[in-house]
Amino acid sequence: MSFLTPPPPIPEDKIVRAERADVVVVGEGLSGLCTALSARECGLDVLIVTASRGPVGRGGSVFAAYSKVLAEHGFEREDLDRFWLQELEGASFLPDQRKWYALLNNSEEAMDWLTDILRAAGLDVVLEDGNRGDRDTPTWMPPCTHAFVGAGVTRAGVGITLAVKALEERFLALGGRVLRSAPARQLEKKGGRVTAVLAETAEGFVRAEAAKAVVLATGDFSANPEMMRAYCPQYAPNFTADGADYDIGFNTGGGLYRGEGHLMALWAGAAWQRTWPAAAMIQGSRLGSNLPYGSHRGLRVNIRGERYCNEDMNGAYTALTTLREPKGRAFAIWGANYARDIRWRAHGGQRDGPDDTPENVLKKWADQVAAGTLKTADTLPELLEKLGLPASTLDTIEHYNAICREGKDPDFHKSPAYLQEIREAPFYGGELNDIRFFTVLGGPRTDAALRVCDADDEPIPGLYCVGSMVGDMYANYYNFRIPGQNYGACLTFGYLLGRSLAK
Ligand SMILES: Cc1cc2nc3c(=O)[nH]c(=O)nc-3n(C[C@H](O)[C@H](O)[C@H](O)COP(=O)(O)OP(=O)(O)OC[C@H]3O[C@@H](n4cnc5c(N)ncnc54)[C@H](O)[C@@H]3O)c2cc1C
Fold this sequence. Notes:
Elements: E1 15-26, H1 30-41, E2 46-49, E3 62-63, H2 68-72, H3 81-90, H4 97-120, E4 124-127, E5 145-149, H5 160-173, E6 177-179, E7 184-190, E8 193-201, E9 204-216, H6 225-231, H7 260-267, E10 279-283, E11 299-302, H8 315-323, E12 330-335, H9 338-341, H10 358-371, E13 375-377, H11 380-387, H12 393-406, E14 427-431, E15 436-441, E16 451-453, E17 459-465, E18 477-478, H13 485-501
Parallel strand pairs: 1-2, 1-9, 2-6, 9-17, 10-18
Antiparallel strand pairs: 3-5, 4-5, 7-8, 8-9, 10-15, 11-12, 12-14, 13-14, 16-17
Helix pairs in contact: 1-5, 1-13, 4-13
The structure holds flavin-adenine dinucleotide.
Flavin-adenine dinucleotide binds next to helix 1, strand 15 and helix 13.
């Protein structure tokens, strides 16, 4: 793994000036900004060094276990103990539980802190709709997703750019400093302690010296093919971004950054996290889904026309199961009656907003037909032909319809609530191929105090990390059951770290 070899030190004559601060935060996404502002509010002198031209964000679903916003909307505090344990179990108990429970225990305080800041900036914090229903199914989500609206943004879950801008404004107003368009290239150590960051600017290298801490917050490593092959090999071929854009926003095309913070930590003596492979965040197709974070819960078949799963799963699981079928392909098939037979909630809606009406659902399908992502036909054989599925799929549909009429699924034991016959023309079908490779989570070994650690689990003095790059926070896959979990962790750990550095 050639990337593990540190580059030669940057010569002194290339360093044009020095900046000094108590804390140097590297990266200006949500995690970096929360850390910087939290520390600044506690009186520390903080410098953000970022490769981007300004604050960066994408999406905008943010988890908090409870909040004043939830209370204002009349939601009781959910008991998440069992759910949290189930999520840990689903991740084979590989994540560091100290961090998982720190998120559960502290996200309310952090969200209330952020809410006050955003409201003062004229923004609104709302509750994003999630998957409802039986909390024992693998689609249920706790009603804990917060989103930011204002300044022309009305859809829930896409307002993070508003939040990071407001955070930066407050940070600057309190006397914080930002060095922009300045990618950090190396860390400097003195007497075993990380003391400075060398950042490349148009005028030359700047030595950003940190009296207390350097906090790495440089996002992910999904656009570094070599690191992907080493730490997340299964999905390495799917992450194809070249990592050249430090301002990358809502990229759904496969990857974000090159893991430069991770590499600097490794060169400074950090060990890689224990969890292998690193957890990928993969969003599956929402075609024909009646849930905001769901996928089609009627009939799914593979290219052989065979049903292959209990369809009651959310989008992330849909992506993973689809990729395991022959040629990585799968299809959803339903009838016009599906629009009326089941309750519809749209993605991007607010928690207390109305259901999607059957008329609107039919209109969306018509739009998708026009866009070519969905096929329709008056007969099932005709539909199968359009989808390129074998005629034997008709047997699968007949068998599935018999199961639906019976209200009992002997094959995959799907809940009767999701057994809707494919009954009324026009019939619809489409390929579940809209799989989006968002990001990869994990990085240097990180303890619960967010200190970056070496192979003996000893903290490297002066070095911390937050955000997507925190080690051993996730395992297996990011499953979207706690939607906005990562931004929730960026917020909570950034807020906590800023406070703790000031102590
Ligand atoms: C399409 C899409 C939608 C998403 N939506 C959500 C969502 O709604 N909720 C959620 O929880 N997660 C979402 N995610 C995941 C999201 O990307 C992360 O949760 C979040 O961005 C992590 O924040 P961060 O602060 O760790 O890093 P980032 O937001 O990625 O910020 C990294 C910062 O580091 C800077 N940087 C990089 N390299 C260097 C360097 N060498 N020197 C200095 N600075 C550097 C970057 O320019 C940037 O400023 C989404 C991802 C994608 C792709």
